[in-house]
Amino acid sequence: MEQFELNLGLELVVRTSHKERIREHQRRFYARHRERLVKENCERMKRRRAENGDRLRARAKELYQKNIEKKHQQQHRLYHTDIEASRTKAREWHQKHKGQSLEMAREYYHANREQVLERARLRRLNNLEVKRAADRKYRLANPKIRLASGARHRARKNSAAGASYTTHEHIDARWKMWGSRCWICGDPATDSDHVKPLVAGGSHFPANLRPTCAFCNGSKNGKWKGVIHAMKHAHTIAERKARKEST
Fold first, then answer.
1. For the whole prediction, is pTM greater than 0.90?
2. What pLDDT is attached to residue 230?
3. Quick one: pLDDT at residue 40?
4. What is the pLDDT of residue 65?
5. Could you give the 3-state DSSP secondary structure of residue 181?
6. Which residues pair with 193 in a beta bridge?
7. 3-state SS class at 203
8. Which helix (H) or strand (E) holds 59?
């Protein structure tokens, strides 16, 4: 036992004193046999993943969740180091793994639906002119889809309660009642808004119609969580529009 410990100690002394020489020898050996070593390592990793795939994925997921903030910061830094290269790489990966990418996007959307919709809404409001230009370009490029969308809206409007009752005179009276001003922000009105949206089961009776401007009508969209929420949401939209115009 003592002899073994002595030999081990001598080996450590030799390795420490010849550290650089050993490293240089390892570098030369790797350079001479690089292709074979890389191939063997890849095959070994493939076998390991095939034999322990579920365990390795679970372990990777556990480590990611444990260090999620650090990972997000690292991904953020890498993305902003070269944005165009990062986007190109992401597009290439998406094209190569389209099915997997779409499945991952669906899973993320269902798990974080409210956050995704809120981010999309804020992005649309902060880039309203860009969004409108993109919408116009899409409508011109896809006239059949635009016509189908208009037909769906007319069908909802025609099938809504009050569709056969409300006339242009009723709508003019509602506009005069509000002074032809947007009921949300007070600017000159350009559209007629269904306070409770048609998609949420709102009626086309005059009581549900109010004048609105294009910005507020687009910001309000089809959301409906009750009258109180509608008034609070309208106040938020008006404040956002005022901030946008002041900048």
1. no
2. 61
3. 87
4. 85
5. strand
6. 210
7. coil
8. helix 53-66
- In the chain, DSSP assigns E strands to 191-194, 209-212
CA-to-CA separations, 216 to 12, 32, 212, 238, in angstroms, rounded: 76, 69, 7, 8
Domain residue ranges in the chain: 161-246
Mean pLDDT by 10 residues, the chain (247 residues): 52 61 80 86 85 84 86 86 88 88 88 87 83 83 70 68 80 87 82 81 84 78 63 67 66
Separation CA 241–CA 180 (nearest Å): 18
- The strand pairing partners of 192, in sequence order, are 211
Least Cα distance to 181 among 209, 211, 157 occurs for 211
SS3 string, 115-176, reads: HHHHHHHHHHHHCHHHHHHHHHHHHHHCHHHHHHHHHHHHHHHHHCCCCCCCCHHHHHHHHH
Q: How many CA atoms lie within 13 A of 240 on its CB side?
A: 19
- Quickly tell me which residue has 């444990």 as its tokens: 66
How far is CA 47 from its chain centroid? Answer: 36
Beta bridge partners of 210: 193
Joined tokens for residue 242: 């005022």
Q: Who contacts 124 (Cβ-Cβ below 8 Å, separation ≥6)?
A: 131
In this structure, what DSSP letter does residue 89 have?
H
How far out from the chain centre does Cα 126 lie? 15
pLDDT at residue 76, as a whole number: 85
